[in-house]
Amino acid sequence: MARETSGFDGWLRTVEFVTREVPLVSALDAVSRLAREAFGAHLWFVEILGRRWSYVAGEGGAEPDRAPVARILLDGRFGLVSDTWGTASDEDRARLVAFLRNLVRARESS
Amino acid sequence: MSAVALKRLVETAIKEDEVAPYLEGGDDFIKDDAIERLLREHRNPSPQRVRDILDRSLALERLEPHETAALLNVEDENLWEAMFATAGEVKNRVYGPRIVTFAPLYCSNLCVNSCAYCAFRAENTAEKRRKLSIEEVRRETEALVSTGHKRLIVVYGEHPSSDIDYIAATIRTIYETKVGNGEIRRVNINAAPQTIANYKVLKEIGIGTYQVFQETYHHPTYKRVHPRGIKANYQWRLYALHRAQEAGVDDVAIGALFGLYDWKFEVMGLLYHAIDLEEKFGGVGPHTISFPRLEPAANTPLSVNSPYKVSDKDFKRLVTVIRLSVPYTGMIITAREPAEIRRDVINVGCTQTDASTRIGVGAYSERYDAQQAERQQFLLGDTRDLDEVIRELAAMGYLTSFCTAGYRCGRTGSYFMNIAKKGKVHHFCIPNAILTFKEYLLDYASEETREVGEKLIERRIENVPDNIRSALKERLEAIEHGARDLRF
């Protein structure tokens, strides 16, 4: 069920809690699941291997969306793909992407 | 190569410790006796049993070996007709009316193996040996791009000169090559079994699908037709795709060379291979299955006198049973087969084919038209150009797809398998097929093909779900105005 953007801070704290101290793939799976539940967003994560964006975690839609699939670099190695952000606002998206970049960077350096 | 040098090469190439973890008591997952027994025990299945099995295929469930054995043993012609129709329907439910099209690119025919059916075998002095330089690979790629191809399967002989560094360099070169609007967007490879470390190199380059054919799953036959060389090790080859998956290459492809042993046994072997991959790697089985038939090859007697050569009738049957057994996996029919066979067999479940095929090393850029047996692994059955094949497919109602969207947006491995098993791949495949087909029609097609193709696109757009039809039409218009590589 879609939630209000004003509750994004609380939602993000939940995400931070759920993803701490778990392997990266599990953390990314959790983010995808929580974003789907909260916003109806479809997010999946990939390892970038030259031209290939190879699936790592998360779940996209089983139907194409009107909008083109969006590909977002998280760092030189990992990427985020989305076919819809559901009810997430532009600001929510930006904050979630920033969180994910930190998450990936922290796990890769650990 | 001397016997001593070959022995040393085999010892260096094969890492037994990368195979051992998959074995049970030294045995692999192909149990010859069990397969033969299943084929004996499930003779003459009743029509009701066959219909029950077909219902499972229509539900897109992978069959169990005893069910596949039953289908292989059907003798009633009417039941076979029902099976042909069901296989076509299964393909349509999963992938829709589209055929992905590619071209093979042979980079090298130097080989250390002694495969009794292959013109590339080391002992065949009649074969003209050659390995393409990187510049020659670029020229071959340019020639292929200029005809409209977007996807390649790149083939290498098993030889120290075609090592992982050479393979990596050729793939990078292919990806870098552009001609006008054209480029190769997906490079699949058919290369010898590698170590896990080498597979990690292939993963990093970003290959599409990695393909290794077991050739025959029957242990005694395998031993007989592979007397020497690295390929003589059955288990090293059988677990090649397991090692690839272990290294992170998650789109892998299996195949058997039909004609070396009983075709029913080989279908069972392919099924067991698919099952073992699924079991070991979280449900991710083969991305595609290939089923080439033994074809005549220069100075290679077994290629013409094998007692197990498969008739056209049995070939259609084996393709049908594979489609019914693994409903969600892609299936490749190649230009080994003559046009009339491809035309017929595509309808029972094939999802990919090649066109404008040349399999001589250097054959695209050097533009010799006739086949030259002494430069090829075998003789082709269909050498028609891409435009002609596409026109024929369009007349049959099939969209030619050059789509490579999936592997460039993370719909790979378990993601792909998940939507394929739900029968939802066509939701993506058809719109993307239409977009890439449109590109081809504008950039490369003859007037005749363009006319047939445009009419087909108009028909197929109507079957696209309402929610994306208008977006699809907008993208088609953008392509008409010069945009390229648009996708869902």
Structural summary, described in words:
The complex is a heterodimer of chains A (110) and B (488). With 110 residues, chain A is α+β, with helices and mostly antiparallel strands. In chain A, 44% of the residues lie in helices and 25% in strands. Chain A has helices at 8-19, 24-39, 90-109; strands at 42-49, 52-59, 70-73, 78-84. In chain A, α1 (8-19) packs antiparallel against α2. Chain A starts with 7 loop residues before the first helix and ends with a helix. In chain A, 36% of the residues are buried. In chain B, α15 (339-345) links the parallel β9 and β10 (352-354). The model of chain B has no long low-confidence stretch (mean pLDDT 95).
* Mean pLDDT over the residues of chain B: 95
Q: How do the strands line up in the largest sheet of chain A?
A: 2-1-4-3
- How many DSSP E strands of chain A? 4
Give the N-to-C terminal Cα separation of chain B.
51 Å
Largest β sheet strand count, sense and barrel closure of chain A: 4 strands, antiparallel
- H/E topology pattern of chain A: HHEEEEH
Count of beta strands of chain B: 11
As for the number of domains of chain A, it is 1
Largest interface: pair, residues per side: A-B, 25 and 36 residues
Q: Give the strand line-up of the largest sheet of chain B.
A: 1-2-5-6-7-8-9-10
Write down the overall geometry of chain A: globular
Percentage of residues assigned to helices of chain A: 40-55%
User: Helix content range of the residues of chain B, please?
Assistant: 40-55%
Low-confidence stretches of chain A: none
What is the alpha-carbon Rg of chain A in Å? 13 Å
Uncertain segments of chain B are none
Structural class of chain A: alpha+beta
* Percentage of β-strand residues of chain B: 5-15%
Q: What is the makeup of the main sheet of chain B?
A: 8 strands, parallel, barrel
Structural class of chain B: alpha/beta
Task: Look up the CATH topology of the domain at 3-22 and 97-378 and 408-414 in chain B.
Answer: TIM Barrel
